[in-house]
Design brief:
Strand content: over 45%
Number of helices: 1
Low-confidence stretches: 1-8
Shape: globular
Number of strands: 11
Length: 170
């Protein structure tokens, strides 16, 4: 079964979403996320809109397009000594340097955000790229991660994310 950080008293394991189904509740790690993915600026449905879980290159992934949209998820990292965030991403049809989606982290439940990485154009990735970030300085019972598009991202500019994972150790 899936353990939670509060059951074990310390964060030891992984929060992971492989987007195996068209849903915002995926939990493929050893620890259970605190929340589902939460959309802002879109309809809240994982199967339609500018943020959705859809097929890309033969597998289901999280896709974000269009301006001023974001999606976030929370994990309880209480008791962790270290936390590493790893994701796979692919940019598609980003035709301008102004096209941008940022990956951010919050250690206070979304009160303030820190940008870890930016995915900008002009670029088109033919395969998924894996990236990792040490988010240990954001360890909290309400650590959040989010993907947010800027005001220039167009309706045809897509960025896909997969295998979102936070690995924590005491």
């Amino acid at each position: 079964g899936i353990a939670t950080a509060t059951e074990s008293g310390s964060c030891d394991g992984s929060y992971r979403d492989e987007f195996k189904t068209n849903s915002y509740s995926g939990s493929d790690g050893t620890l259970a996320w605190t929340t589902d993915w939460l959309e802002t600026g879109d309809g809240g449905d994982a199967t339609s809109g500018d943020i959705q879980v859809m097929d890309d290159l033969g597998d289901t992934r999280l896709m974000i397009k269009n301006k001023s949209r974001y999606i976030e998820r929370e994990a309880d990292l209480s008791g962790a000594g270290t936390a590493i965030l790893t994701i796979d991403y692919r940019r598609s049809r980003l035709d301008d340097f102004a096209d941008l989606i940022s990956m951010q982290v919050s250690g206070d439940g979304g009160g303030s955000w820190y940008t870890l990485e930016e995915y900008r154009g002009p670029d088109d990735d033919t395969a998924y790229v894996t990236t990792s970030h040490d988010i240990s300085s954001f360890i909290a019972p309400n650590t959040r991660i989010r993907f947010i598009s800027n005001s220039f991202l167009g309706k045809q500019d897509d960025v896909f994310f997969d295998n979102v994972q936070i690995t924590c150790t005491p």
